[in-house]
Write a structure and sequence with these properties.
Length: 637
C-alpha cells in the first residue's frame, strides 16, 4: 500500500467499507496459498535436482572407475606378456585360462586420488578365441561406489556401479625387421663405394656411410598380400617419403639414431626424403627359447632329406641317438631338401645346394663354410622395378621357388674361420668400439649413446646406464607371484629374460663377442655331428671351407654377430636378407650385393610368414561397449 500525495477525506457508508475489507483479506489468503504452493514446488524440484546431480556425479565416477579398471586389466596382460616374452609371449596369456575360460585377477582394487579413495573396480577376463598365433580376450571391468560388493558390510548395498567391456586381440607376426635387406640392431655402416643394397637398410643405432658412395635402392613396404590362386595382390603401400605418390620411389635408409656421412649415397637411399633418422627402434625377435618353434615344426611335420634319406625330422637333437649338431652338404645331384621349419638344438653346418621351402633354427651357431645355392631359384633376384605392379608380377611368378631361412640363437659364420685372414679381419672389427657387443649398453640397448641425442653429457637425455659396469635388468617380484605371473621354472628374484640390458634374452650377462665364440672348434666326425657327415669324418675345416663363398641364397637372422669374410674376383651376393645385432662383413670382391627377397613383404600374409621368427604385435582393441549387467557382482578375492 502507498500514501496518496493529497490529504483528501473520503466518506463511505459502513457496509461498503466492510465489504472492501473482506475482499482484501480473501485476496491476501489466495496470494499466500499460491506463494506457499510455489515455494513447495520449488523446494521439491530442488530436492529432485540435487538428487539427480548426485546420481549423475556418481554415474560419472563409476564410469571412470570402470575405465580405470580396463586400463589396469590391460596393464596386467602386458605384464603377463613381458614375463614370458622370450619364451612364448602368448603362453603368458593362455596360461591365465588354463583352469577355465574366465579368470578374475583383480577384485575390489581401490582407485586413489592422492590419499583420497575414489572408489574401487573389479576386473575379469574371458578367453574368446585362441589360435596358434593369437588370443582374443574380453576384459570386463566394473567401477563401484563406495566399494565392491564383496568388501561391503553385511546388508549394505552398492550405491552406484558401471560396467564396460574391452575386447582385445594379441597376435604373433613375423618381425618387421624382415622388411629390410640389411637390418642391424646396433650401429650400422656401409664403408665402401661398391656396396649395393637392393632393398631397404636400417639400423637401430646410428647409420654411417663414412662419405663413401654405396648404393641403396629402397623397396616400398606393404601391409599385406592377398592371393587369387597364384596371383599376388599387395595392399597397404607405405608412402614413407610423404610425396603423396605410390610410384615405387619409397623405401631407403632408416635409423633409430642419426644418419651420418651419407651425402654420397647413390640410389633413392641418397635422397633426403628417403633417409629417416631418429625413427625409433624396431624390436628384434628372440630365439633364446626355441620351444615354441619346436612345437610349430612338429605341427607342420617338417623335415630335411638328402638323397632320399631323412636326416632330420621336425626337431633334431630330441631323439635317442641324435647328435645335437647337424651337418648338411648338398650337391646339384643330391641337394638338401627342406620342408617347413626345422629346429636343431645345437650347431648347424650347411653348404652346397638346397631346394624346397623351409627354415632351420639353430640353438647354437650356423656355419656356412662355402656358398649356398638354390636349385630352383627365383627367375631373377629382384623384380624388374619397384612399382607395385612389378613387385606383384615377380611374386606371382616366384612365390613357390626355393626359399631357405637360416636363423641362429648365437652367431652366423660364413667362410673359412681357420684362415688367418678371416680371423684377423673379423677380430679387428669385433674389437671396434662402434661394434660393441657387451650387454652394458644402457636403457636403449645401443652402445655409444650415453651422451644422448644432444651429444652433451649431464643433460636429461643421457643414457646413464650405459657403461656403468652393472647388468641392469628386471626381476620377477612378489607382486608377480601374487598375481600368478611367473612362468614355470622361474622364481621371485630371477631375471626376467629380455628386459633391460639383456639384449639376447638369455637372462645372463654376455661380455664382448670374441673369435672364440665363432671359430669352428668342434671335431668334424659322426660322434659330434649328424646329417650326412662322412662316416670317416672330415680331416679339417679348411678342407671344406673357403674365403671365396660368394653366393649365399638365404635369409639370415641372428641376435648376435654375422661374420663373413669373402675374397675373389666375383661379386659377393646375399640373396634374401641380413638381420643381425652386429655384423663383421669384410669383402675383398669387386662388389657386394644384398638383394632383398620380395617374398618377405606383406607381414603375416607374406609367402614366408610361417617360417620367420616372430614378435608379439601391439594389442588391437576390437571393440568397447557398456554392459547393462554387472558381470563382476559376485566376484570374491
Amino acid at each position: 500500500m502507498c500514501k496518496l500525495a493529497t490529504d483528501v477525506r473520503l466518506t463511505f457508508s459502513r457496509s461498503r467499507a466492510e465489504s472492501r475489507k473482506g475482499s482484501a483479506l480473501l485476496s491476501t489468503v489466495v496470494v499466500m496459498v499460491s506463494m506457499m504452493g510455489l515455494l513447495y514446488a520449488a523446494s521439491s524440484m530442488s530436492a529432485v535436482e540435487v538428487k539427480d546431480a548426485r546420481r549423475g556425479m556418481s554415474d560419472v565416477k563409476t564410469k571412470y572407475l570402470a575405465e580405470a579398471g580396463v586400463e589396469r586389466g590391460l596393464a596386467f596382460l602386458a605384464i603377463a606378456v613381458k614375463n614370458n616374452k622370450v619364451h612364448d609371449p602368448l603362453k603368458g596369456l593362455t596360461d591365465l585360462f588354463a583352469g577355465g575360460t574366465t579368470c578374475t585377477p583383480i577384485v575390489g582394487e581401490a582407485l586413489m586420488d592422492g590419499a583420497t579413495r575414489v572408489g574401487s573396480y573389479t576386473v575379469s577376463m574371458t578367453s574368446i578365441e585362441q589360435t596358434p598365433t593369437s588370443i582374443t580376450i574380453a576384459v570386463d571391468a566394473t567401477g563401484y561406489l563406495p566399494d565392491a560388493p564383496s568388501a561391503l558390510a553385511a546388508g549394505r548395498q552398492v550405491e552406484s556401479w558401471h560396467s564396460v567391456r574391452s575386447t582385445v586381440r594379441y597376435s604373433l607376426a613375423p618381425s618387421d625387421v624382415f622388411n629390410y635387406a640389411y637390418f642391424i640392431n646396433n650401429w650400422g655402416w656401409f664403408y665402401g663405394n661398391t656396396i649395393e643394397c637392393k632393398g631397404n637398410a636400417r639400423s637401430n643405432g646410428q647409420f654411417d656411410a663414412a662419405n663413401y658412395s654405396p648404393t641403396v635402392t629402397g623397396q616400398p613396404m606393404y601391409d599385406s598380400v592377398a592371393w587369387s590362386g597364384a596371383t599376388a595382390a599387395l595392399s597397404g603401400y607405405h608412402d614413407d617419403n610423404e610425396d603423396g605418390l605410390s610410384d615405387g620411389n619409397d623405401g631407403g635408409i632408416w635409423s633409430g639414431w642419426d644418419i651420418v656421412n651419407a651425402g654420397n649415397v647413390q640410389g633413392n637411399g641418397g635422397n633426403t626424403e628417403n633417409q629417416h633418422d631418429f625413427d625409433g627402434s624396431v624390436e628384434m625377435p628372440n630365439l633364446s627359447d626355441l620351444s615354441s618353434y619346436e612345437a610349430s615344426a612338429t605341427d607342420n611335420g617338417s623335415s630335411i632329406t638328402i638323397a632320399g634319406v631323412t636326416v632330420s625330422n621336425a626337431v633334431y637333437g630330441d631323439g635317442a641317438g641324435e647328435r645335437q649338431n647337424l651337418y648338411l652338404n648338398g650337391t646339384a645331384a643330391n641337394p638338401i631338401v627342406i620342408n617347413g621349419p626345422v629346429v636343431v638344438r645345437g650347431d648347424v653346418m650347411i653348404t652346397g645346394y638346397v631346394t624346397g621351402i623351409g627354415a632351420i633354427y639353430a640353438g647354437g651357431n650356423v656355419y656356412c663354410p662355402n656358398s649356398i645355392r638354390y636349385v630352383n631359384p627365383p627367375t631373377t633376384t629382384r623384380p624388374a622395378g619397384n612399382t607395385q605392379a612389378q613387385t606383384e608380377a615377380w611374386l606371382s611368378t616366384n612365390w613357390n621357388k626355393d626359399f631357405l631361412g637360416l636363423f641362429a640363437r648365437e652367431n652366423v659364420v660364413v667362410g673359412d674361420t681357420s684362415h688367418w685372414v678371416w680371423q684377423y679381419y673379423t677380430g679387428y672389427w669385433m674389437g671396434d668400439a662402434l661394434n660393441a657387443s657387451a650387454e652394458d649398453a644402457g636403457e636403449d640397448g645401443i652402445p655409444n649413446t650415453r651422451r644422448g641425442r644432444d651429444g652433451i653429457l649431464g643433460t636429461d637425455d643421457d643414457d646413464v646406464l650405459e657403461g656403468d659396469g652393472v647388468f641392469t635388468v628386471e626381476h620377477y617380484s612378489d607382486a608377480d607371484a601374487a598375481l600368478g605371473l611367473i612362468p614355470a621354472g622361474q622364481s621371485v628374484g630371477d631375471v626376467i629374460p629380455g628386459t633391460g640390458e639383456d639384449i639376447d634374452g638369455d637372462g645372463a650377462y654376455d661380455d664382448t663377442t670374441t673369435l672364440a665364440d665363432v671359430v669352428m672348434n668342434k671335431s668334424l666326425n659322426t660322434t659330434i655331428w649328424g646329417g650326412n657327415m662322412p662316416a670317416g669324418g672330415i680331416a679339417s675345416y679348411n678342407s671344406i671351407a673357403t674365403l671365396y663363398a660368394n653366393n649365399m641364397d638365404a635369409t639370415f637372422y641372428t641376435n648376435h654377430s654375422f661374420c663373413y669374410v669373402v675374397l675373389g674376383s666375383s661379386t659377393a651376393k646375399i640373396n634374401g636378407a641380413l638381420v643381425s645385432r652386429n655384423e663383421n662383413i669384410i669383402y675383398g670382391t669387386p662388389t657386394i650385393e644384398i638383394n632383398h627377397d620380395s617374398r618377405l613383404l606383406g607381414n603375416s600374409s607374406s609367402p614366408a610368414a610361417s617360417l620367420l621368427p616372430r614378435t608379439i604385435e601391439a594389442p588391437e582393441i576390437l571393440r568397447w561397449a557398456r554392459l547393462d549387467r554387472d558381470p563382476n557382482r559376485y566376484a570374491t578375492p
